[in-house]
Amino acid sequence: MISERLGAEMNKQIGEEFRAAAHYLAMAAYLDSENWNGFAGFMKTQTEEEREHGMKFYAFLNEVGYRVTLGGIEEPKNDYSSIKEVFETALEHEKLVTSKIRKMVAIAEEENDYCARNILQWFVDEQVEEENSMEEILIQLERIGDNQTAFLMMDSKLGNKRSEGAETETDGE
After folding, report:
1. CATH code for position 17
2. CA neighbours closer than 13 Å in the CB half-sphere of residue 9
3. CA 29 to CA 31: how far, in whole Å?
4. Do residues 87 and 141 touch, judged by C-beta distance below 8 A?
5. Would residue 170 count as lying in a domain?
6. Which of 28, 64, 136, 148 could, after both became Cys, cross-link 40 (CB 3.0–4.6 A)?
7. CA-to-CA distance for 156 and 36, rounded, in angstroms?
8. pLDDT per residue over 2-60, tens digit each?
9. SS in 3 state form for the chain?
10. How many CA atoms lie within 13 A of 142 on its CB side?
11. Is 150 part of a structural domain of the chain?
12. CA distance 127 to 20
């Protein structure tokens, strides 16, 4: 059984993960509207990952007998001034999620909840990957400046990366 305190934090995190999915989908919609299909595809993949993260918390809480309840999700930001702003916003969000995961880890450690600590370690590792991915893209965007050819190449690269990831996922089925 999980403590009320930790269960409540994880329950809130389910909402945060679905909120993130909505934000990433709104980012994808903006990028699609600007005809940046590779960047949009990357954000669509992020949308699915966030949904899966929410379901991972959902499944864990159900497994340990904690009642999951869902709150509302506010409207995401739908308009951006640039691709760079999209990724800056995404990085800010990932940093926020990292802080929430760390808070849950601290509670699990304080309460000696090794089962929760175990699943939270997966999220700690995932957040390192997520922040790193967004930071790398931002560094590349900084380097290319206003070079439209470089933007097109990067858009294509992210689109191909998404396609390769989808093929790899289906290969294992």
Report:
1. 1.20.1260.10
2. 17
3. 5
4. yes
5. no
6. 28
7. 9
8. 999 999 999 999 999 999 999 999 999 999 999 999 999 999 999 999 999 999 999 99
9. CCCHHHHHHHHHHHHHHHHHHHHHHHHHHHHHHCCCHHHHHHHHHHHHHHHHHHHHHHHHHHHCCCCCCCCCCCCCCCCCCCHHHHHHHHHHHHHHHHHHHHHHHHHHHHCCCHHHHHHHHHHHHHHHHHHHHHHHHHHHHHHHCCCHHHHHHHHHHHHHHHHHHHHHHHHCC
10. 7
11. yes
12. 13
Distance CA 77, CA 59 (A): 29
**71 belongs to a structural domain:** yes
| Model pTM score | 0.89
Could you give the CA distance from residue 141 to residue 134 in angstroms, rounded to a whole number?
A: 11
Cα-based distances in Å from 79 to 92, 156, 172:
16, 22, 37
Alpha-carbon separation of residue 17 from 13, 52, 90, 134 (angstroms)? 6, 8, 13, 17
What domain range includes position 85?
Answer: 4-163
CB atoms within 10 A of CB 70: 11
Number of domain units in the chain: 1
- The one-letter code for the residue type at 164 is E
pLDDT digits (tens, 9 = 90+) for 92-111: 999 999 999 999 999 999 99
What token pair was written down for 84? 């760079």
